[in-house]
Specification:
D-Maltodextrin-Binding Protein, domain 2, BUG, alpha/beta, Bug_dom1, signal
């Protein structure tokens, strides 16, 4: 009898089963559970690397995992940027890039191994490095004096840069255009040798990031002529802005951004974006960035969509500058 009762109960029709919510991907729920690599597509010691290491310290605290910095330089940032684009989109490999890697490179190469507008998820604008036009000692103390020299020596100005397609190359192209110099561009393997030869008089002038020019300008080994931004730099209060120097169209600054590979889950992107923005709000980091003349964007201008819009606007800008200057794609 007992056996029949049990079998009968088992045969009774079942009522509606309770709804069980579908589990979200474990990756998004448990992230991060191990260290997060912050990739830098340039050699250690440069402006982007310095920013990355300062940011990594704060990210580690807010995300609860260590954030080691990995440097992979080469080809103007292309090698490291391509590697980031091909990384697994799980939030454990992210990277920094800047105006060159994510906006200007398409203007100089027929076929990039990545598409800056479609292969990445923008996370946060992390800082802007102003650029400065500077001349070798004894050549000119102002832009007006340099223009006079150019008028007397047409086509003879030499502009050093960190390599074709580099941000200093872009700055040089723009500076050449605004002063109508028809300069000879002299590429080097990096900003340091380019700056050194300008200091030594091998080349006449250079346009480079403020962080590399400021120490030499303060020491008198190079003459800063103009800052390519609307306000003067507190580190060089006597150096005029481009507008004050009579070249208002000389406007260029190296913006830097944080990125994740395309396809990274949305919850992870949101966490990363907020972690970067929170790091930039840190007072100690702000002071450190100021020492390197890095300008932190306001919160409203540093999010994912503002960075995406910035890239979309900058790609055609540098494409036009390169074509107007007669630079052929490699």
């Amino acid at each position: 009898m007992k056996r029949r009762t049990l079998l009968g109960a088992a045969a009774l029709p079942l009522g509606p089963l309770p709804l069980v919510p579908l589990a979200r991907p474990a990756l998004a729920q448990s992230w991060p559970s191990r260290p997060i690599t912050l990739s830098v597509p340039f050699a250690a010691g440069g402006p982007t690397d310095v920013m990355a290491r300062l940011l990594a310290q704060r990210l580690a605290v807010s995300l609860g995992q260590s954030v080691p910095v990995e440097n992979l330089g080469g080809a103007g940032g292309i090698v490291g940027t391509e590697k980031l684009s091909r990384a697994r989109p799980d939030g454990y490999t992210i990277g920094l890039g800047h105006m060159g890697t994510h906006a200007a490179n398409p203007a100089f190469y027929k076929s990039l191994p990545y598409n800056p507008l479609t292969d990445f998820e923008p996370l946060c604008s992390v800082g802007t490095n102003p650029m400065i036009a500077a001349a070798r000692p004894g050549l000119a103390k102002t832009v007006a004096e340099l223009r006079d020299w150019v008028a007397k020596n047409p086509g003879q100005l030499t502009l050093a840069n960190a390599g074709t397609g580099s941000v200093s190359f872009l700055g040089g192209l723009l500076f050449d255009r605004v002063i109508s110099a028809r300069s000879t561009m002299v590429p080097y393997r990096g900003a340091a040798p380019a700056l050194q030869d300008t200091m030594n008089g091998v080349t006449d002038a250079i346009v480079d990031q403020a962080v590399t020019v400021i120490p030499q300008a303060r020491g008198g080994t190079i003459q800063a002529l103009a800052v390519a931004m609307p306000q003067r730099l507190p580190q060089l209060p006597d150096v005029p802005t481009a507008a004050e120097a009579g070249i208002p169209d000389f406007s260029i600054a190296v913006w830097n951004g944080a990125y994740a590979p395309k396809g990274t889950p949305e919850p992870i992107l949101a966490k990363l974006a907020e972690a970067f923005s929170a790091a930039l709000d840190d007072e100690a980091l702000s002071k450190q960035f100021t020492e390197y003349a890095v300008l932190i964007p306001p919160r409203a201008e540093r999010g994912r969509e503002p960075l995406r819009r910035l890239m979309q606007a900058e790609v055609p800008r540098w494409e036009k500058l390169a074509r107007d200057a007669g630079v052929e794609k490699q």
